[in-house]
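ok so for the tutorial part 2 we go from a plain amino acid sequence to predicted structure tokens. step 1 is just haveing the sequence, like this:
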Amino acid sequence: MTTTKLPFELSEESTTSWLQSLSQLSSVNSANQINKVIKLLRAINTDADKIFRILIQLTPTVIYISTDIESSHQTESNKNANDKSRKVEKLCIQLLRSLSLAFYAFTTKKSFPDDEKNQCLYIALQLIGRTQRITTIFHQFPSTTLWKKTGEIFISAQNRNVFQQQIKHKLKNFKSLSTIEAVLKRNILFSILAPYQQHADLIKELFSIAEQHAHLLNLNTTYTTENAFSWNINSTHPPYATGSAQLRNDSIIGINTNELLSFTQSTAFSSSLKKEALEYIVCQISGYRELINSPVPSDFVINHLLVGFIDILKYLEETEKLDKIQQISSQLAKTASPNYNLLNPVELNNNQFSLNQNTPNSSDNFLSEAEVVKILKIKNNQHLIAESNPMACSIGDLTLLCASNHPPELGIIRQIRITNASGTNHILIEKITGTPLSGRINAPETIENQIILIQTKTSSSEVFIATNKFSNGTLIKLVSEESFTLDKLIDHSPFYMRYQTY
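step 2 — the prediction. this is what the tokens look like for a chain of 502 residues:
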């Protein structure tokens, strides 16, 4: 490809002149121009050294522009945001993402000098971290590609024996962290702190904490129960909390947070965070282990537990059908002539299920597929522990507590602990406030069209969607003819995307 479409020649002088001309434009227009240039530069297969120097020149301006856009477009809620402002947010994210991938591409060029390759590994990882940060602040869908590239950068740095090497560069924005290891640990810690669940100001503080204290993390490839988190370097997912039973796999990197946890609980740790935020940080760093290890002695309750998006939706759909039939039967019974016996069982789906006036609750028909568990209390009212026999479940998956005399309660598995030799599980569940309802998406068209809606007493609502790349502002139309707009992503795992809606 020729460089005729570029607005400058492949020289530092020409690039500098062009960057100076952008000062006459707004940050948004500048971002758009630079994004186009990066796309063109990535497509050029010759003049590698010149392209590399130009990318270095572009980096400070890209960081400045992204910071300016972040400040001017940051909102706590996108309810008042229009399509234009959302496009600007996406452009800002895309700018950082594209530049990080442009640098990464040089690490695979065989003829490229080793020192420059090391710089590219380092700069790409720095920009990936900044992309993580701004994507979270805007509560947009996270990039799975960047976690895949992060794993590749880790492997390459290890193979080249430069993981802990001081990287020489002239980029002032990156001076606080001087090694690939330090940058990787920051990115990992920021992810561990689950920033999507927080407001913008706290997200920024969490990134700052990660940059200052991530060196206290211990990354290792040795299997040990001391690892509160694990990271599969061959996957597209960020690190995840691990329970008592951890995977033994050569691609799994263990993350020990003990030293960091002790530090954040000591007087040596100082921040402007309120008590509630500090408690949140400690909980996240421990991988919820402190919560699961502190059940409150009290009488337990027997309940039923369903695990997994599909099984939960099946239960909700069927019980909602039967509830509607009960309502219709009740209404007909009140208005019917005494000569008609309308209290006989009402048939549904070719006699698959039936109910009558003597059935205490229609959901009893479906509890046979659920796991019987003991519900144990803990000091934190937002969580509970479900004690069960050995069962298939994963941290980050959805659960549904269901009983014949109580509305179903949706939850998220935050930690799992095996308590004895027979494999008894303690499953820590974060409770989701509100009533879960089933739904099916009619538009936009998607492979996974099932959805869980959370009905609350407030005007703010939430939905859980099977992992899909939806954008903020997407209008979701249901088969039931209801509709809502995705406001912002507030939590995610390999099992779901959790959005606030309006």
